[in-house]
Fold each of these.
Amino acid sequence: MTTTRRTPPGELLPRSFLAAPSMEVAPRLLGCVIEHETTQGTVAVRLTEVEAYHGELDPGSHAFRGRTPRNAVMYGDPGFVYVYFTYGMHYCMNLVCEPAGTASAILLRAGEVVEGIDLATDRRRGASLRELARGPARLTVALGIARDDNGRDACDPSSTLRVRAGAPIAPNVILAGPRVGVAAGADTPWRFWIDGDPTVSAYRRHVPKRRPGNPSTSRRGGTEGFSS
DNA sequence: CTTCCGATATACT
DNA sequence: GTATATCGGAAGG
C-alpha cells in the first residue's frame, strides 16, 4: 500500500506534489516556501495567498484560448515556473501543475519574506515588512524574478529557484474565495489564503473597462471567504 | 479606507 | 490596428 507521507518542512517539494489539478494543490501550497538565490543573496517567501487556474476549461486562465507562445510553459511539466508580464510594468509568477499536456497553474499572489529581508527590502525600495511580498507583482520583485525566469524548474535540487515544503497549516484557517483581477470565471472560488495573515493582499474585484460616458464604477470586495 | 492612472507585451480583429 | 491585462504606487479622505 502506498502511504502518502507529508514532505517534511524545509525539504524540496517533490514534483508529484504538483502533478495534480491546480485547485487541489493550491490550498496545500499555502505555507510552502519559494526561495531564489542570486549573486546578491537569497530571498525566501512563505506563501500566504495563491490562485488556481485550470487550463482550457477555465475562462480566467491564460490557456483558455489554447496554446500560444506566452503560455507554452503551462503545457509542460509540473514544477516549472510560468512568468508573464502584465499591465505594462509588472511580472507575475505561477507554478505549473498537472502532467505535461494540460495547462494548469497556480499564481503566487502573496507571502511573508522569511529570509533575505534586507535584500528584499532593497529590491522593494524600502517597503515595510508586511508589504514586501503582499501582491503578485510585489512578490516577484522581492524574489528578484523577471522575464528570463520563465520556464525554470523549481523542483530541481540544483536549481537556484526552489519550492520547499512548509509547516502544516490548520485546515480551518485556509479560506477560499473568488479570484482577483479575473474578468471571466470570477465567481469560481479558486483563490486560497491563510485567514488573518497580514501579508494577504487586499481583495480587488476585476474592474470592467470604463468607457467614457459609461460610468460603471463597480469595485470593492472583501476578505470574506469559505472555510475549506 | 478610496480613486486614479501608468506604460507595454500579447492576443485578437 | 486595437483592446485588454492573474497590478502597484501615489495621493486624497
Note: The longest strand of chain A covers residues 41-54.
Amino acid sequence: MNKRRISQTFFNKTTLSIAHSLLGCYLVRKVGRKVQRAKIIETEAYVGLKDKASHASRGLTRRTEVMFGLPARAYVYLIYGMYYCFNIVTAKQGYPAAVLIRGVILNNKLINGPGKVCRELKINKKINNENLLLSKKIYLERGNKVPGVKIKSAPRIGVDYAGKWKYKKWRFFVK
DNA sequence: GATAAGATCATCT
DNA sequence: GATGATCTTATCA
C-alpha cells in the first residue's frame, strides 16, 4: 500500500479547500509500464447547482451525472471537439462539485491548460468515473506542502457567460 | 504585445 | 442545429 497516496479523508472537506490542498500534490498516471507523476500547480473549483459556470447548473444529465456522484472519482469530458478536461469530483453524493486540473509540472516542464494536461497524460474518456482512491491507472499522491503565501487565487477562465459567478475567485495556482 | 479565427464533436435543445 | 470549463496559429498594431 502506498503511504503517500491520498485517501478518503482528504475529500472530507469543502470543495474550495480541496482545490487549495491539491496544489503541490501529484497526479500519477500509469499507461502500461510507464508512470508519469505530474505536480499540480493550478486548479479551479466548480461548486453546486447554482454555479452557472458549472456543467451541473443545468441539472443532472448523462454527461454530468459523475459530478453528482461519489467524491474522489474522475470526471473527464470532451470540450470543443478536441480537448479533454480532467476533473476530480468532490462533495457528497447528490451534490455536484468538482475540481478542474488546469496546470501541472511534468518532468520539469510547465503544462498550463487543462487540454494540454490531458494530452500529455493520455487522459481520455476511459478514465471517466475512475475511483482515484482505488484505481491503478490514475491516482493522487501527497506532495510537499505549499506555503499559503505562495498560493494565489483569481477568477476562473473562459466562463464570461456565467454572470456574477465569473467573479468568484475559485481558481488557485502556485506563484 | 494583443486580438481573432479555426479546428472538430459529444451533448443538449 | 447550436454550442462550449480550449489551444494553436495567423494577423494586426
Note: The first strand of chain A starts at residue 26 and ends at 31.
